[in-house]
Amino acid sequence: MAASEFAAWVRDFATERDRRAAGADPDWESGAVLSPAVRASIQRFQLGEDGDGANLIAKADAAGDPHYTAAVRLFEDEEHNHARLLARLLEAGGATTSAGHWSDTVFARMRRAVGLHAELLLLMVAEVVALRYYRALRDGTEDPLTSEVARRILADEERHIPFHCARLHASIAQLPRAARRPVLAGWRMLLLGAGLVVAADHGRALRELGVGRGRFLADVAGSAGPVVAAIVGTDPPRVPAELAEPAAAARPPHPHPHPRSGYRLRPRA
Ligand SMILES: [Fe+2]
Ligand SMILES: [Fe+2]
């Protein structure tokens, strides 16, 4: 992807930042009713959203495209806002944030240990799993505040997938052709592993939200194909249909839709 296209992503993220700043927060005063299982589940995802983005920003900076670095900074701001929203939701439900969990420590160490492209592949695993989780939370909870927080986060995560796909598309293209298939097969295995961990650890919460472990895992695994297709360039970067908001198809068409899918290829101009 050309640097100028990441300039468009900077505008996209900046537009979202300005929209956030101009809009009101959810009504925290209304309070939240969180079951013990959902509360514990949200505490875990809050930890995951609260990661330190300095490492990714440094790697993006070293890659030498100032537009991409600026976009990554704004992306990290969105992830920190997700952590803030989930912390406020927990507070509204009379709970606190969690101190830490082994899976977040392992994930953070893995991210730090690798280069930019491998970190983006790891990050994409987390994004794809999170997308299915927040959809379950938005649609499955009976608590209005929880559903509103999940809706806001989900809307951001749906933009993060094509953003990472755009960068990974350029990265994969630089790999020898023979190496691409094993790399992406490894990514699929990582996604499956992460889906298994989340399905196991959040099984009770997911069941309360109306999504069984098997269905959660099947949806996560099924989303690998469209993401891989977007990375290798046989399909445009887009949110996999099975993970997208059901209402997405009813939205007004983007000014620059892909001729086949109708999903936007680029951030808003
Ligand atoms: Fe997030
Ligand atoms: Fe994200």
From TrEMBL:
GO terms, molecular function: oxidoreductase activity
Organism domain of life: Bacteria
Biased composition (Low complexity): 240-251
Native species: Kitasatospora camelliae
InterPro entries (alphabetical): Ferritin-like_SF, RNR-like
Region ranges (Disordered): 240-269
Biased composition regions of type Basic residues, renumbered to the chain: 253-269
Protein name: Ferritin-like domain-containing protein
